[in-house]
Amino acid sequence: MFDPPYHPTNFLCEADLPAPSALRKQIKPLIERLISDPDPKQEIRWARFGPDGEEALLTDLLQAIETLLTCQRDAQRIPELEQTIARQEQQIGQHEDQLFNERIGREMAEGRKDSLYKSLFEMEERLEKMQAEIAMCRKHPILLQPKFDPTLTCAQTDWMEGWRAAHGFKTQATLITLLGDTGIGRQPRIRWEMAQLLGYKDPSTSNITKAIKACEKRGLIEIRKATEGLNGRPPHLMYLTDMGQAAYVMLTNKKPRSSELNTLASHMTDGHMLLNLEVEQFLTQDGYEILAHGHRHYLDGVRQAVPDITVRKDDQISYIEVERNGRKSERAEKWINLCELTGGQIYVFCQSWRLAQEITNEAEAILDEHNLKYQLNVTCLEDCRRHNKIIWLPLAESR
Prior knowledge:
The chain is an alpha+beta fold. The protein folds into 3 domains: 1-117, no CATH class; 143-262, Winged helix-like DNA-binding domain superfamily/Winged helix DNA-binding domain (Arc Repressor Mutant, subunit A, Orthogonal Bundle); 270-397, Trna Endonuclease, Chain: A, domain 1. It has helices at residues 20-36, 41-45, 54-139, 158-164, 169-182, 187-198, 206-217, 242-252, 260-263, 270-285, 328-342, 353-369, 381-387; strands at residues 221-225, 236-240, 289-293, 297-298, 304-305, 309-313, 316-323, 345-350, 375-380, 393-397. Strands 3-6-7-8-9-10 form a 6-stranded mixed beta sheet, with helices on both faces. Strands 1-2 form a two-stranded antiparallel ribbon. Strands 4-5 form a two-stranded antiparallel sheet. Strand 4 and strand 5 (304-305) form a beta hairpin. The longest helix is centred in the first third of the chain and has 86 residues, at 54-139. Residues 1-20, 38-52, 140-146 and 150-155 have low confidence and may be disordered.
């Protein structure tokens, strides 16, 4: 039952109040009359509450009734309110499901975007290789010829018979065998290896020169001059032609090794290619195993690291960057990506100590700016030639 905010007889003195049970008996018929009688004031005057309390009693009774009616109306609205709350909860659940589906859709879209980025970079990588091969073929028309078939038999041909009977065949055959066995393409290195094989003290001896010219005249080799060198005049570069590969098979019954110049054809310039070849020579002498050239490593959907040479020594893989020149703006992102790829162990082979110092200052500033942990190990071609081995110097490390 409703408990009114205050007792309808508050205006009476406590001594004048009847007992609670008697008061309830008196108020109940008054309320009934108040509801049914159009003029309840007359009945109220008959109550034993005094003439001055009639209006206060009436007011209190009216307020109590109004409160009871309000509570009754509110009680009747409870089912309606419960239905409204249920509908709102259902709408909230639908909105939550929609938000969840949208989040799943965004995550799937991000996954598709990363996959598309990866596919795009793979296509760009293939395009770069194709463009490099096209550029290389334009430089060396011999590469446009069909690849040599390793199943070619060793049957003697007329030209082979004529070559065997020619003066200087032994020296020429040594040259063809050397190119097929090693894949060496730099003429200074070829002359040095030829001198070792034939027992000559001077690599520039006329016998070696005559053998080179004779093989070129017979169409067994192709020679071109590099567009740039490391020091002094650019060296000549040498390839086995398709006929030269056939001659190698007939001499050795083996498939010729791919030329080192073809392996590094993706480098932008002859100078960078020649520096990479000389770096590999020192690495091999120092016990490193060459694993890859210019392999592309994807760090995420966008960034990538492309070290020039990947090597292994004592079961440890290292990535080596070969620097000849270049603008600083083109290298800034390279050091950050290379630091992440290598775990901070960065190896850089420079052509000169002047460039080594420039690279050290540049990489140190960039890596420190990004608060990366690193150790920068540097060497240069001048030092390796002087000591005939590689000496890595830790020129900089994170603070």
